[in-house]
Amino acid sequence: MAHVSAGPTICCKQKKRFWILLRMILQSTREIAQDYYTEATNTASSTKLSDDKRYALTTISNDLSSMITLDEDEEEATYNVTRAEDNMTITEDFNSNKFLTTTTSVLLDDDAIKDVAYCLRSHKFNEYDRRYETNADTAPRRFFMENPRPPLRSLHWEVRKSCELSFSECVNYLRKKIMYTSLKRVDDTAIVIQEHNWTVNNTLQIQTVDEECKKMRRRDDILADPFEGPLERLQWRSTASYYMCWYTMKEAPELAHLNEKCDNFAYCLDTNLGPNNRDQRADDDQPFSCALYSFCPDPCCPARHLANLQHCWDSPDNPCFEGNPAGQRECAFNRTQNTDFRDIILNRWNVTCRCPKAGFEWNSLYGMCVDVDECATGAHSCDQKLEACVNLEGSFRCACKWGHVWNDQTKACTPSNALSLIKLGRKMEEGDDKKKVSLFGRIARFFSRSNGANAVKNDSRLFLFSVVLFYAAESMK
């Protein structure tokens, strides 16, 4: 009697019931979230619901609307689950127990880079090193001058995991994390003033928005959401700044222009400078200027605010200040020469200063102008066949190679007559050496034949050896 197993049929029916139940749960949850989102959207005009909050609610609604499709054929049941989360498409095949994962193209939201720039700009200009400083009132703010020194002992693992994949993955992850902070870019007083084009006639509205902005800022300082505490936030933001600065140095096209004014400290309204500090380094019309201003310290002009670049050149903090006269202290910072990720972490920047003396160039390693070795770099005009390059301080000179002399008539190096005489002398010496070796060879052969019974008596052998040495010495004179 044949045995028929009903296992696979029961298994497929159980799976079908499970997916139907899961679909009902998700549908109910989605309806609740949709009702909440609809109500929040309707009241957005009356309440101060920011675009980021609406974006978060939309993301929740979209994530809960994960699409579940079920093939009704129980014998070849295949369940496809498409999830928007993490921009991954996951296909689960229960027949083969294989999982196929395909990374789809990641699209950046128009405001994603702006939100990340705002968050990290706040870190750059307002944060202090909480690893060593405990008093926020007296702690120096130096991240606009240099990255944390000493550097972090380890990078934040979540930031590293996402930002090493690609630029878009990095920005999307950072933006998702920033959504959980209290103070966001659209809530900042400076941004609100720009978006609404408020003037002095809107003083009351500006004061109200600024009070709310400062409340959210204090909340972030105390709670440090969504991080475990201020120290993890420092690690997270510093690591994020490393990667975003690195992408800026590598000139990611999305960072060329932020399409927004970035000349603010991302710290609510500055009572001294207003909503825009008019820093010349934050000119979004210049490619990558806003990205540099938001993500990277400035090794040339390590100042929090700079209204005029001439103030930077005349500052002792300018690496090109010492040793250069006024008017020749400009400092150049080339992005393509600062693409090493480790150097960014360790604050090893390559800058270029103008050297007052010709034949000298700036060396970032030593922080001074050093002589250019034209001979090593090949920047000389010496004839490689006849002349040798000699490096001098600030210049070089060409000298005739060995065996050549300078000819005043032809104005070139020519072979010397002494060279042939020297070669002839060497040949004669080589011939004499061969004769000497031949004589001593004959002596050695003579004594090598003296063996056994044919050996000469000791006394006569000694006499004969003395005579041979005497004649050998005479012939060598």
TrEMBL record:
Residue stretches making up the EGF-like calcium-binding domain: 371-414
PROSITE patterns: EGF_CA
Keyword Repressor: no
Domain of life: Eukaryota
Coiled coil: none
InterPro entries membership: EGF-like_Ca-bd_dom, EGF_Ca-bd_CS, NOTCH1_EGF-like
Transmembrane region(s): none
Top-level taxonomy: Eukaryota, Metazoa, Ecdysozoa, Arthropoda, Hexapoda
UniProt entry keywords in alphabetical sequence: Disulfide bond, EGF-like domain
Protein name in UniProt: EGF-like calcium-binding domain-containing protein
